[in-house]
Every structure is written in C-alpha cells, then in structure tokens.
C-alpha cells in the first residue's frame, strides 16, 4: 500500500467520530488477544483479528516479507472482499507516528518481536489541517503486544505504533475493513493534538 512514509503507519479513513470526554475510540470497539502458551491460541471474537491470526499461522509467511535494516517494509496479502491485508516489517526503533484509519475498522497481530501501541484521549479530534485540540490530563498507558498477541479497533481509533526494541526486527499482520480510503496524520504539540495531513489511498 502506501508509500514507505505512509504505509504502515497504516492508513486512515473518514471523519473522526469521537465521543465527548472519551478516548478517540470507544473502548468497547477494541479487543485484544493473548494466546494460550500451552494449547492452541484462543480464537479471537473479532472477525478481522481472527483472520489475521489464521493468516499468521502460515509458516511460509515470514519468508515472503523482504526486511530492511533501516526502514519498514510491507507486502499486500490476499484478504476477504472489501478488506486490506498487509504484512509489515519493523526494524528496531521504527514507528508509524500518530494516525487514524479514515473510518475503517482494523486489527493487527504480532508475528515476531513486540510492538507498543499508544492511544490518545481527547474530547474530540481535530478535523481541519493544523487544527489543534487540548489533550485530556490523563492519557491511556501504552499497550505492549508481544509475539502472538493482537488487537482490533473501531473506526475512530487513533494510535502510534512503535517497535521500541533496540535489536529485534518485529513483524505484524494488519487487516482493515473497508479498505483504507484515507489516513489522517496527527502530532502532539505543546500538549495539544494537531491534525497535520490527510493522505488518500491514491497516494499510496
Ligand atoms: Fe494504524
């Protein structure tokens, strides 16, 4: 998908739909899984995450992804109709930056290494370029997803995903439904949450 600069950051979709006084995405829209280390991994209840886990079970998958020591890499995978699926490689200390998914739901599953997901809590997301909104005093703690773990998220989800390992190349599998039409990129500036750019699928 997208250009190296945008692609997985993972793409974003239509107008942020946020609820006043909550995080950018309702908590009920998210699920996470932790595999049972002794038996078979429990099947996630979210269909997107379930598909990601099933696809990740293919032992040949990792061999198909070219890795680069300095930048993230990705390949597009076959996916259910109307969805996007991407396999992404994360060299040490690479990240997406803050972004949403343009209104698409999504899920990602870690096949190798660990990823740290940060989310933001604001009353409402900025909708115009360079618009900024104050961040809530208390922000959600980052979520660390180790190998075999994953999460799903709803259409207003905003996050920053980071491979904070100094040595390990991480790999993750991402699903979006519908296929990402656009992605908004945000930044934190002086305690405010700022809308920087909007990237469209045709730019990827
Ligand atoms: Fe994302």
From TrEMBL:
- Annotated region (Disordered), positions in chain: 1-46
| InterPro entries per the UniProt record, alphabetical | CDO_1 (IPR010300), RmlC-like_jellyroll (IPR014710), RmlC_Cupin_sf (IPR011051)
Q: Which domain of life is it from?
A: Bacteria
Instruction: Output the Gene Ontology terms for molecular function.
Output: ferrous iron binding; oxidoreductase activity, acting on single donors with incorporation of molecular oxygen, incorporation of two atoms of oxygen
SUPFAM superfamilies under this entry? RmlC-like cupins
Family, per entry: Belongs to the cysteine dioxygenase family.
Instruction: Tell me the protein's name.
Output: Cysteine dioxygenase
Q: Which organism is it from?
A: Embleya hyalina
Its taxonomic path starts at:
Bacteria, Bacillati, Actinomycetota, Actinomycetes, Kitasatosporales
């Amino acid at each position: 998908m997208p250009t190296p600069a945008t692609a997985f950051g993972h793409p974003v979709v239509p107008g942020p739909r946020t609820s006043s006084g909550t995080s950018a995405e309702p908590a009920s829209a998210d699920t996470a899984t932790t595999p049972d280390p002794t038996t078979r991994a429990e099947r996630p209840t979210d269909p997107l995450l379930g598909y990601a886990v099933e696809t990740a079970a293919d032992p040949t998958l990792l061999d198909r992804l070219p890795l680069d020591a300095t930048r993230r890499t990705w390949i597009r995978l076959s996916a259910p109709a109307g969805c996007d699926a991407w396999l992404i490689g994360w060299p040490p200390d690479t990240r997406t930056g803050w972004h949403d998914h343009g209104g698409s739901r999504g899920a990602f599953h870690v096949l190798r290494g660990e990823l740290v997901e940060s989310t933001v809590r604001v009353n409402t997301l900025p909708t115009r370029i360079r618009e900024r909104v104050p961040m809530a005093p208390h922000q959600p703690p980052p979520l660390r997803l180790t190998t075999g773990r994953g999460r799903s998220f709803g259409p207003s989800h905003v996050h920053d995903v980071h491979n904070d390992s100094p040595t390990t190349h991480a790999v993750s599998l991402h699903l979006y439904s519908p296929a990402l039409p656009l992605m908004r990129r945000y930044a934190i500036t002086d305690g405010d949450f700022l809308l920087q750019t909007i990237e469209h699928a045709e730019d990827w």
